[in-house]
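Sample 3 of the quickstart, ligand zinc ion:
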Amino acid sequence: MIKAVLTIDDMPQENTIPIIDYLLERNIRPLFFAIGEFVEQKPEPVIYALQKGLIVGNHTYSHANLNEVSLEEGIEEIKKCDEVLDRIYKEAGVERKIKVFRYPYLDCGGEKNKVYTDLLRDLGYKKVDDTGVIASQYISNGWKFENGTNCSFDCEEYLLREGSDMTIEKILANVDAAFGKEEQIKDQQHIILIHSHDLTDEREPGYYKTIVERMLKYGTEFVEASFMDFWKLS
Ligand SMILES: [Zn+2]
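Result:
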């Protein structure tokens, strides 16, 4: 049986609260990564998540590609989102016990990676414990040694947009291949990436339900994330 941590990026959006309600009804406790400026514009879904006891992590202030912006801008993107999260946790009346970070575009900062690693460590960040992840791409990308929380299964549902040939059928076929084969699923851990995107919901209403239900069909056990110190890894 696959044990899976469900991570949800790019919140808060209109569909964030419906996603939370749907998942909690099934005892699935996701881990969110929020965009700082969205949190400032639309705080309610974040407060809702926090008051349900869910963790909201840092996904930069403006969804910047930290490999492409200058080092100063990159540092500012991380720090500014961190401060926004501090404020929203306070507003929600919830102690911020765990800080986690995810690079937008799963970019790891390129040559600036070491500086970001030091910054995140100094700010008290951890990463999702990925000890049980064996997905080959995750290993070959070196993500076991990364400071940010990456993913071992990308639903790619954000491609469900005008101008893309991605379909929900293709996504479900990918889920079948990764979650449905007996020989692949022994003691395997996945960190699943899906998004809270209103545009995707317009194109494919309730896309998150369709995908999660297919994973549940194969007996996937959704577990709450546990965390580890990344700076001891390299
Ligand atoms: Zn993102």
